[in-house]
Amino acid sequence: MGEFEKALDKYAKYVIQQARTNLTKGYPPYGTKNASTNLYNSLSYYVDDGTVFFEMLDYAPFVDEGVRGKNPKGLPKSSKWYGKQKAPFSDYKFGTKSGAKGGLTRGLDKWIIRKGIAPRDKEGKFMSRKTLKYLMARSIYLSGIRPTYFFSKPFERGWIKYSDEMVLGFMDDNLNIEE
User: Fold this and answer.
1) pTM of the full predicted structure?
2) What is the DSSP string of 111-174?
């Protein structure tokens, strides 16, 4: 492994380590994005022929960049997110009919169970998990998912941190500079 690939390897290790930290610590007051640890465990990389390849679960870009809601004004006016997009600049959006039907509700069901959430109404009475899933799915569908930049920020910071080392490594490997 040449000096350039060693620098790429250091850069990639940094990005993965920081991305995992971001998933675990979360972003106050929004909390962690590591409920199942599946995304955390899926983060990996490899260096091949002078290129870094990062691998992660398919839904990682949605967690990183967020998802625009279909129509935040479709929520009740008393709702916290009425008229507010959680990810107004995201390339991803709900309402394209490209996702699996019922996929959001199935994911919420597992998340509610994992978090041990006991659904209650305004008076404090228990309500069905089915009702809670519907209300949460509607809110997420209409107002979106807030971006975390758990991967994007370390990717950019790592580039700044290791770019000089990568350039010097490339020059060392390819230009045979004599001192």
Assistant:
1) 0.83
2) HHHHHT---B-TTS-B--HHHHHHHHHHHHHHHEE----TTHHHHHHHHHHHHHHHHHHHHHHH
* Domain assignments of the chain as residue spans, ordered by start: 1-66+147-179, 67-144
* Residue pLDDT, tens place only, 19-38: 999 998 876 555 677 777 89
| β-bridge mates for residue 18, sequence order | none
- The DSSP code for 73 is G
Q: pLDDT tens digits, residue range 117-163?
A: 877 777 888 888 888 888 888 999 999 999 999 999 999 999 999 99
Tokens of 57: 């679960």
Backbone dihedral angles phi then psi of residue 131, each to the nearest 5 degrees: -65, -45
